[in-house]
TrEMBL record:
<dbReference type="GO" id="GO:0046872">
    <property type="term" value="F:metal ion binding"/>
</dbReference>
<dbReference type="InterPro" id="IPR023515">
    <property type="entry name" value="Quinolinate_synth_A_type3"/>
</dbReference>
<feature type="binding site">
    <location>
        <position position="56"/>
    </location>
    <ligand>
        <name>iminosuccinate</name>
    </ligand>
</feature>
<keyword id="KW-0479">Metal-binding</keyword>
<feature type="binding site">
    <location>
        <position position="73"/>
    </location>
    <ligand>
        <name>iminosuccinate</name>
    </ligand>
</feature>
<feature type="binding site">
    <location>
        <begin position="265"/>
        <end position="267"/>
    </location>
    <ligand>
        <name>iminosuccinate</name>
    </ligand>
</feature>
<comment type="function">
    <text>Catalyzes the condensation of iminoaspartate with dihydroxyacetone phosphate to form quinolinate.</text>
</comment>
<dbReference type="GO" id="GO:0051539">
    <property type="term" value="F:4 iron, 4 sulfur cluster binding"/>
</dbReference>
<feature type="binding site">
    <location>
        <position position="172"/>
    </location>
    <ligand>
        <name>iminosuccinate</name>
    </ligand>
</feature>
<keyword id="KW-0662">Pyridine nucleotide biosynthesis</keyword>
<keyword id="KW-0411">Iron-sulfur</keyword>
<dbReference type="InterPro" id="IPR036094">
    <property type="entry name" value="NadA_sf"/>
</dbReference>
<dbReference type="GO" id="GO:0034628">
    <property type="term" value="P:'de novo' NAD+ biosynthetic process from L-aspartate"/>
</dbReference>
<keyword id="KW-0408">Iron</keyword>
<comment type="pathway">
    <text>Cofactor biosynthesis; NAD(+) biosynthesis; quinolinate from iminoaspartate: step 1/1.</text>
</comment>
<comment type="similarity">
    <text>Belongs to the quinolinate synthase family. Type 3 subfamily.</text>
</comment>
<feature type="binding site">
    <location>
        <position position="119"/>
    </location>
    <ligand>
        <name>[4Fe-4S] cluster</name>
    </ligand>
</feature>
Amino acid sequence: MVTMETAELETDLSLFKYDSLEQLPASYRDLDEAERTDRIETALAELGDDVVILGHNYQRREIVEHADFVGDSYQLSKEAAEADAEYVIFGGVTFMAESADIITDDEQTVILPSMEASCPMAGMAEALQVDAAWAEITDAAPDANIIPITYMNSYADLKAFCASQGGLVCTSSNAHRAFEWAFDRGDKVLFLPDKHLGENTAHRLGMEDAIAEWDPWDPEGKDATEVAESDIILWDGYCQVHERFREEHIEQVRADDPDANVIVHPECRREVVEAADVAGSTATICDTVANAEPGETWAIGTEIHLTRHLQRWHPEVNVLPLCGDACMDCNAMRQIDPNYLTWVLEELVASRERNVIEVAPDEKELAQVALDRMLEI
Ligand code: 13P
Ligand code: SF4
């Protein structure tokens, strides 16, 4: 029986991982785009090779346009690992900037322009909750070798926990390989925090009958013994941006145009992924549209900024948001306001570092093990 005390945990859990949150000075709040672009370009010219800007595919146009590299979480972690610049400015969310800090050398500094860019899904599996669940599940299955895998969308302390228990990190582009890696070494997987990516990966591997869910918010929920009988235990986390997509949206797109193709992110619900023509990471979505024939229609089931980028980048392809006006932007990604980018760059020109992401040394070492395992699979 689950004995975790939800009320007590809630007081210890927080959405924002860093209390060094620095707000944008008033003088930066109302810059118009022309002035801002000019100031960003001037600052970048002064900083030269000292700075590299990495941007996730979900970032706003005004961030993506200034980025040296734009990509999915996996590509960005590889770029961070290979970066030589003294400063890595991360256009993304906190867990991505943390991973960049873990992967880069100690002399390099990672800056997240706004510290409020916290992914709600990463906040759904706090290390404190996972510790409690782990104790129960491992007690319920004392003879099993359970390997924890955390999605990249998690904080450094959870990545460190996974490494400490023989596990690793994965992204949406390599989750299936991470599961295979884990089943080569153990007999069960605890996958955190995205139940949809976990379920979609289990299906990809033909293991859909081996799934159980662990709901950390439901102390009266399933018996740990029952859950621990399954080979794949999914943490009950999700992304609200992707949960919005439904099968009806796909049916509607196909009713409007029987030739339309549908591509969705694997954070979408199982039935949506099953009904789509293709499912894949944001890089797969970008590549698929880039390789489409002129005149083809592609409905995109992911965050709306990426859909808009694809419309701009590939005007020869008919790119549609899968659920029309109901498609969401990611509130966390949106916190990286271009005014913040202007500010952190101009502060660097003045030799001041703002909004630095610094993972605690003890977490860093272990989290690096979990990330390195992923980079090797
Ligand atoms: P990708 O790794 O596919 O870029 O996804 C990151 C993400 O946060 C999706 O919501
Ligand atoms: Fe997190 Fe969803 Fe935003 Fe991705 S889209 S960063 S999972 S909230």
